[in-house]
Amino acid sequence: MKALSACPLDCYDACSIVYSEGKLHASKDGHTQGFLCPHLNHYEKFETIITPRYKGEAISLEKALELLQEMLRASEPSDILHYRGHGNFGLMQQVSDHFFASYGATLTDGNLCDGAGEAGIIEGRGSNKNMPLSEIAKAEVIIIWGRNPHTTSSHLLPLLKDKTIIVIDPVKTKIAKMADVHIQIKPHGDLELAMMMSRFLHIENATDELYMKEYASGYEDFYELTQTVRIKATLDDIDVTLGQIGHILELVRNKRVAIVCGVGIQKYADGADVLRAIDAFAVYLGLFGKEGCGVAYLGNSKEKIDSPFFTKAARISKVNTDFSKFQTVFIQGANPLSQMPDTLRVKESLSAVKNVVYFGLYENETSAEADLVIPAKSFLHKEDIRASYSHNALLPMQSVAPSESGISEYALSAYLCTAFGITLKSEEEYLNHFKSYGLQKADGSLLVKGREEIPYSEGFDTDDGEFCFLDAIDSNKENDGKLFLLTVKSPHSLNSQFKREQFVYLHSALGFIENETVRISSINGELRLEVRHNDDLRQDCVLIYSGTSGVNNLTSSKHSLDGKNAIYQENKVEITR
Ligand SMILES: Nc1nc2c(c(=O)[nH]1)N[C@H]1C(S)=C(S)[C@@H](COP(=O)(O)OP(=O)(O)OC[C@H]3O[C@@H](n4cnc5c(=O)[nH]c(N)nc54)[C@H](O)[C@@H]3O)O[C@H]1N2
Ligand SMILES: Nc1nc2c(c(=O)[nH]1)N[C@H]1C(S)=C(S)[C@@H](COP(=O)(O)OP(=O)(O)OC[C@H]3O[C@@H](n4cnc5c(=O)[nH]c(N)nc54)[C@H](O)[C@@H]3O)O[C@H]1N2
Ligand code: SF4
Ligand SMILES: [Mo]
To answer: Is residue 474 part of a domain?
Structure first.
């Protein structure tokens, strides 16, 4: 049997997959370019949960569903929380929102991922439309700003060939080592760097003034704001030289430039301002609305796709969720005990909940603490469809084979809707609803209808159609001698799925010995990890990958100033033996 599907993971690339002769293969066409990454190459080797359980005892799926129903009946709707993560990026995953919202339960808002950056982008441009891969391919110069493509978006790599590459990253990543210029910036120095680069463009008369007069007339005021950044002191502070800035400006002048940003630059309280300042630099260069030019981030993957589900509900933030306010918490496609910030707080709050239900694929910290564990079916055994935050394809995900164990999100929601008298359409109707947003290309693949290949060609989506510059910055950074925590994506795991690491990476000059166990602490908590040396790091940084058990003991559950996002790199840390 041959089936067409797509990788379900929360990843920029959203690869197309062909399943034949019992194996997953990469699609040779389009953005997937004939290869997958290690997660999908080894997907079927990772052990999934097969048997449901209640208070540690194995039970049948039927019994699990009955227990779930009883828990819900025994709680007031307002005492029920539905907490859903992005373990699977399929659009049908939201079907459970429909049940819980219709029932009157509380859902979440806030964001653990890209929300701060997105808020800054929306403030500037009025929307978060992405520069697709197909346009990045046409650029002459690519600035990779806080993104690690060898690990998190490997399908970008073939597009970088023969282009001028500039990397801005506190780590000498693989792409940094291959780049024409690498600025090994001090973490959290990006806002200042972007402001200074805009200022120098203005001083050198290298801005696109005609463009700005039409689409960004506040540019003079923004220039004044850039003048508030003290050059010498700031350069010293962020560890960048005038020569490096000059070199970048020389390379981007009169070129088609794509600025490819990741989430690394916005895991701070002022993360929104960072993306907005980078956008402003792009506006100064006139990069929006032109072929092969623009800023790529995590675009809105649901742009131009309306949800068919009822989702109006009371909501509380995913960043600092007070679980203890609820009697029943239903966790789907997420591992909050590892991935939410401030794990000690999460543990305490979740342990006060009477019924914790975990609906997922793998065993982890959250399944271990749950009262009721319900195994999900993997994407290979259910129908879904997905979009991407980095390109415009719409990708149906066919079931490749039936499976005995687990239950799909649709089947679980259908069971609950029937039990509680809530209307739900057939699975096919929802899938067709999503498919109807696809425009078929000559090769049979689908693109989301109505998305612009070159976004913002006719100005911005703000009220007056013009780019809205930052008008103030809050540059309150302490120089306290503590170390920066970089908590980034690992090549071996997808956050807490697959093969997780359990090390702290440090520059050898810090004096800690390979394999010794050290204590890493912040104002929120601590953990102990074995040391691995990595001289690709700066000496003022500590790197602990996302998915490392306990890393979020160190992080804060405060929100970013805009965008209701987690701020995983705001806390600094200390290391002791
Ligand atoms: N293999 C793998 N792939 C993944 C994931 C995974 O866990 N593993 N997760 C997926 C998810 S959920 C997401 S959101 C994406 C995210 O993918 P990316 O956007 O690539 O995210 P990160 O790895 O968090 O950070 C990227 C880079 O930012 C740099 N960085 C950190 N702090 C700063 C800073 O202050 N300034 C600058 N200039 N750079 C900084 C880091 O050193 C790192 O190289 O990846 C997706 N893909
Ligand atoms: N320290 C630190 N913390 C971070 C980050 C960081 O960089 N550093 N990154 C943050 C970011 S960007 C993100 S996006 C979040 C991610 O945080 P989470 O959304 O919690 O993601 P995962 O750790 O990937 O856990 C996803 C879970 O989904 C389940 N799952 C997989 N497929 C399915 C399915 O088809 N159905 C169901 N029901 N379940 C499924 C798996 O069992 C898995 O445990 O983590 C955030 N936390
Ligand atoms: S690169 Fe991303 S989308 Fe492609 S197979 Fe790997 S995780 Fe999935
Ligand atoms: Mo993410």
So the answer is: no
